Amino acid sequence: MAEGADQRANQRRLARAEIAFEKNHQPRLQRRRQALAQALRRRFVGQGENGVNIGAMHDQDSTVNSSSLKEGIRAAGRALGFSALGVARADPGEAAVAGLRDWLATGRHGDMDYMARHAELRADPRLLHPGTLTVISAAVDYLPHRKSVDDPAAAAISRYAQGRDYHKVVRGRLQKLADAIGELAGPFGYRVFSDSAPVMEVEFARQAGLGWRGKHTLLLSREGSWRFLGEIYTDLPLEPDAPVTGHCGHCRACLDACPTGAIVAPYEVDARRCISYLTIELAGPIPEPMRPLIGNRIYGCDDCQTCCPWNRFARLGDPEFAPRHGLDSATLVDLLAWSEEEFSTRLAGNPIRRIGHERWLRNIAVALGNGPSTVDAKNALNSRADHPSALVREHVAWALSRL
Fold first, then answer.
1. Domain containing 32: what range?
2. In a domain, 35, yes or no
3. Alpha-carbon gap, residue 321 to 323, rounded angstroms
4. In the prediction, which pLDDT does 67 show?
5. Which of 47, 89, 91, 380 holds its CA 20 to 30 A away from the CA of 148?
6. Do the beta carbons of residue 324 and residue 157 sit within 8 Å?
7. Any idea which residues carry the catalytic annotation?
């Protein structure tokens, strides 16, 4: 299929952009790199009562300063539009890894088999990128607006997906940041990610001081949670930043707001009940008991974020993520009418495109079945009643039975 070929081409392009490992063959730059590594390693020795002795190499002549390098990296990050940037050791820690394994053992990842398949890569960054010592964690604000979709005939699309594909935007900026680091430190080994590989991004962002893990399991800070995360795995032995204290307290707003009860306990999410999983990750039929709970949400769900008190302080995000093609105000009837070609063309460069036209129609059919019984809604559904896909036909029939 043309769509499959396009996806494979995109994957090849993403792989080329994602992986970068530079080797230094120039003696002068080799000496510079070695001096940097030696100087930075010295700063790790004997840090606090619980510090880990990473090792030291004595170099009387080195003038490289870890703090100066980190400040240079932060300055370059700000210039590229990152709202926060921090450094963590390339070790998610026993507690985080144990939590991941327990989550997988209970089956809460649903049909996301890749989560289990790549669990060890998440647990040990060196398996994903050999030589990794440090994780540079970065955040980009994305909140496009503060509107809510209260009309049941309107399409509710998660705010992160209304504009450009964050995978490409964030990863592109991380690559530019890596280039800037190379100017400061000389050639170094690295790989950049933005939700594009098995990385424990929230845990590393927490360790790097970008925020704390909220009870909805997303990264939360005093500036809210409307942020994309990205990482640079690197062999630069930078000194890690200190984590910040969590500030959720006794609040349970996100647990109470979840339409499907997917936040089964503080800091625990059952993906099988999450609307984001049901409308994005799940390839097959949406379980019937869950369908009425989805409401008019056709791609993702923001309820656990919109209710969070800390998001009162969130700033509007980067203009790159401003809504496109009216995705912040479209009606369900209009979107159901998109042909497969229109879907692919209009959503080029948008994260929604990856679910494909079939799941798009499935989701909209469910939302129409949850909405008002209007002539337009019935006509729209009937226009898809004989769709070639059995998945679409079944969800359309379910929706019509409710109107």
1. 8-46+64-146+161-285+306-322
2. yes
3. 6
4. 82
5. 380
6. no
7. 195
